[in-house]
Structures are given as C-alpha cells and as structure tokens.
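Changelog note: in this version the structure field was regenerated for every chain. One regenerated record is shown below for reference.
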Amino acid sequence: MSEPNPTPAIPPIHAELSFIPLTPSQLVWRRFRKHRMALIGAIGIVLLMLFILIGSIVIPEAKANEVDLKARLSSPTAAHILGTDSTGRDSFNRIIYGGQISILVGVLAVIISVSLGTVIGGTAGFFGGWVDIVLMRFTEAMLSIPSLFLLIVLGKFLGKDVQTIVVFGRSFSGSVGIVIMVIGLTSWMYLARIVRANVLSLREMDYVSASKSLGASNIRIFFTHLVPNTLGAIIVSSTLGLAGAILSEAYVSFLGLGVQPPTASWGNMLTSAQSFIQRGAWWMWVFPSAFIVLTILCINLLGDGLRDAFDPRTKSHIGG
C-alpha cells in the first residue's frame, strides 16, 4: 500500500511578519531609542519644559519681580527654596521665567536661521550656475561676521533704547528682539551649506526628473521632494543650533548687553550674582548656572541621538 502524502508544512505567520519592511520614520525611531543618552536628553528637555510651563501657570510673573528687601540675600529656606537675590526677589520664580526667555530666544532664533538656511542653501543647490555662485559667496561673506561681537555692539547701542514689547499680555524688554534677530540672522550659514550639498545630489534623482517631466513647478519640486528628503539634516542642525542660541543669549545677558531687567533670563541672573560671589551668596550663581548647563547638555545629547538616527549608515538590526 502506498502511504498517504504528508501534509505540506505551513510556515508560521510570525516568521513572515518579523521581516516586514519598516518605513523610514520607523527606522529613525528604532535607531533613536537604542541611543540611551539621547533618550536621557529627551526626557530631561521634557521635564524642563514641564517645569517652566507648570511653574508659569502656578506662579504669576509679578511674583518673580516682587522685591522684598527684608529677605535680600537669603540662603535657600522653606520660604525661598533657591534663595533670593540682592533685592529679595525669589530665585526659584525668576529661574522659571528666566527659562521661558532663554528658551524663547533660542527657539525663535533657530526658526529664523533654519528658514534662511533651508531656502538659501536649497535654492543654490537646486538652480546652480550663477545663482549658486552668488548665494554661496554671500554665505561665505556672512561667515566672516562674528555674531557674538555683533550681539555685543547692537546690545550696547540699541538694547536700552528699544521700547518694551508686549506679547500675550507679557512684557519683554526690547533687547529680547535684538538678541533673537542677531542670533537668527548670523547662524544660518552652516545649515545652508549642508542643505545645498544634499540638494545637489537629490536633484539628479529619477523622481525629480519625473516630476519635471510631468510639469511640476520648481517651487513644488523644492518643497515636496527636496526639503522633506533633507529633513534629517535640518532637524539635527535645529537641535544643535538651539543649544548654541541659548548659550549666546546667556553670554550677552551676562555681560549686561542682552536681555535687560526687569525681564529675567538665566544670563542676567548670573550678572546680578557676580558682585556677591565673594560674600558667600553661592545660590545666586549655582542654580542659574546649573539650569544652563543641564539644558545645553540635554539638547546636545538629543542632537547627537538624532544625528545617528537619521544617518542611514547607522547599523541597526531590523529583523527580529
């Protein structure tokens, strides 16, 4: 007798599912979450933003500027957990609102620099020829301008003359706008070079040629195909540029030429502390310095992780 044919083995479903290709965003997330230090940086930034946001809701800005001469130069206590400054203002409250200003300056300056860098670098790479030559020579000329020196000069001669700005019911010294504009207008050049290099390679791709043959406009090709494929470099540059903008604001505010009182920033809090370092008022400079250092550290860790995540050459075990 002939034996019955054995039933063919059916491959397990999970074996096929384990090799489903991942989308580019899923690949980026997989690489990023394996970068432990980047995750720590991201968590630190989230906690900092929650601290500033919740603190500004619970504590009104008037409390941050409230003067109490009886409590001046008080060390950390239950009433003032981070101590007070030379006029009795609570350092905890001022760190909350100082963090708002420092991060606001950084974010707005980065928006300006990223917009300029993307448009100028992308335009130079996409059109090439004399457009590329003119824009790149302009970029090189801008690289020769020392941004910190320009910040100091404009802050000294214009900072105290600009009127107070009121945004969403909050008053900001006019110097805030000067700091934002100078940092934003003098920090786009490196991103422009990166975007130009990427666009030079992307414009030769088949999908760009196909879009041109279908009658797509240059603007549509630029913003639909080229910019999204350069997004990794833009995001990484934005993250690292944010750290540099916050640090630049702290520089000029520490010199007394940036954000002016009564608007608080971490930089001008250090300015008011320098006269009292020898008197033992350590809390006046330790806590603002700690917040600056931790913020810059977390942003740099996040930027390093994003750079590795967007790099297609990063080794990652996709299956399993």
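Spot check on this record: Strands lie at 165-167, 170-172. The chain has one domain: 29-68+78-310.
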